[in-house]
Design goal:
- The chain is mostly helical.
- The mean pLDDT is 93.
- Helix 5 runs antiparallel to helix 6 and helix 5 packs parallel to helix 7.
- The longest helix is centred in the N-terminal third of the chain and has 18 residues.
Length: 154
């Protein structure tokens, strides 16, 4: 890293003497300088000349570092959730949902209106976040479902 304006001017002159940035890149000089600079910075961190928070200063000892507990739901909880979710989707008013999603898509494609009211209307019609995002992805020219697991239902 440069310490002052004189170092920057000297480096600029060196690049100009090589024939400019493109020549310096073609010769590999820029790549060499980057590596040299990175190695220098690494040495400074290792010798504590340069502070790296969490590495050589203010580091938390391993035994004191917080390790969150991983949540693993019981299989019956998962089954119950999936059953309830399927029932939720089955009982939705498909006519109202289709209309709300159509309005959202139309607003996104054809107007400059804020999409927030349309998204809230879709949520009130029991659309899921994935369905709303899917419709907005389609407006942007992307697939409805990035993972390819769902078909466009509206």
């Amino acid at each position: 890293p440069f310490e002052d304006e004189e170092e920057i001017k000297a480096m600029d002159n060196k690049i100009e003497q090589m024939g400019g940035w493109m020549k310096a890149l073609e010769r590999g000089w820029v790549h060499q300088e980057l590596w040299r600079s990175l190695l220098e910075m690494q040495k400074e961190v290792e010798t504590a000349k340069r502070v790296a928070v969490g590495v050589n200063r203010f580091a938390i000892p391993t035994e004191e570092d917080f390790q969150p507990k991983l949540y693993t739901p019981e299989s019956n909880e998962v089954e119950q959730y999936l059953t309830e979710f399927k029932e939720f989707k089955r009982k939705r008013d498909w006519k109202g949902l289709k209309e709300a999603m159509g309005n959202l898509r139309h607003a996104a494609e054809k107007t400059n209106d804020s999409l927030v009211p349309y998204a809230f209307d879709a949520l009130e019609a029991d659309a899921t976040f994935a369905e709303i995002i899917g419709v907005l992805r389609m407006v942007d020219g992307l697939e409805y479902d990035w993972a390819g697991e769902r078909e466009y239902p509206f």
